[in-house]
Write a structure and sequence with these properties.
binds magnesium ion; Rossmann fold; 359 residues; 3 domains; DNA polymerase, domain 1; Ubiquitin-like (UB roll); binds guanosine-5'-diphosphate; three-stranded mixed sheet; six-stranded mixed sheet; 15 helices; alpha/beta
Amino acid sequence: MKAGIIGLPRVGKTTIFSLLTKTHVDPLKYSTTPNVGIATVPDPRLYELAKIYSPKKITPAVIEYVDVAGIAKGEAAKESAYLNAVRTVDMLVHVVRDFKNDTIPHESGAIDPRKDIETLEFELILSDLAVIEKRLERLVKDLRKVKSKDYEIEYELLKRLKAALETEQPLRTLKLSEDEERRVKGFTFLSAKPVLYAVNLGENEISKMRNLAEECGLRKFEGMPNTTMVGLSARIERELAELPPDESEAFLKELGFQETAIDRLITETYRLLNLMTFLTAGEPEVRAWSVKRNSTAPKAAAAIHSDFERGFIRAEVVKYNDLITLRTTAACRDKGLLRLEGKEYIVQEGDVILFRFNV
Ligand SMILES: Nc1nc2c(ncn2[C@@H]2O[C@H](COP(=O)(O)OP(=O)(O)O)[C@@H](O)[C@H]2O)c(=O)[nH]1
Ligand SMILES: [Mg+2]
């Protein structure tokens, strides 16, 4: 799964991308191709399991981030390469700037996270409107020639989406039926993608994090469907990343946090992508695997190998907490805590699974 980092120029996108993916990007090098990298999803359970299995390898779940070059007002009209790069991602991390710094000019001259969000979201909405209008024109022509129930349904649906966009409602906030979801999917509407607002705070203002929406004028976006927000100071996160682990831990404690904001950002991205984790554990490897919520056992098995889905026989499942308490799957079996699950089983967060299959 892929998250695209978007936002106005000079808000901290590339800085945050580097922190997320632990890569170095030369901030002075102008690049027209997006930066692409992998972030590991923080999961302390892996290290607890490693204490039991002493595995050769520990493999966390990952998310791909794409840092697309800055977007500016009026982009939609140009139908630029930028928007096309954004089209292929599964969700958006929208970085907005709250930090003040006179040497780093801000696109619109003033620091106003809410206005910046509205500006950029308006571009996404305009782009979607253009797509809808084009399709509607075509549908009207086609409907004149043939009577088609399918076209009629699509026509009515697109009219409804258009009306929402015209009142500046992003499509991600609409409630759609499964059938409607299926119909709109192919359009890859930009405003339909889940959004995480990453609010880049001044280094002396991170206390705003405790009451982010209120402090940054973002109340309007609170509780919106498929929308969430995380506050951070990219500058502080960079300092933390440059310190040796024990010192950065002490610094973090001093700031009053248990985890870095970058880790929180990754965790929230994961959640907004509707992903959950199941685990596999053994001497060769302890590993976290991502699947969509509500996946069946064979679907989860496919995350490991497509043969596993085809040849699926059963899943042997223990809960992470039970395994940590009892230390072995054999002990779990003795206590009746190892379950044999079939094709219909819906995998749960934190299941430790051994798949049985034949190929
Ligand atoms: N003071 C301060 N400067 C920052 C912060 N985040 C980024 N910057 C600086 O702002 C400038 C633009 O950052 P960059 O990450 O390249 O922004 P982008 O254009 O959105 O990719 C760079 O000089 C960064 O060092 C921050 O949290 N505080
Ligand atoms: Mg950049």
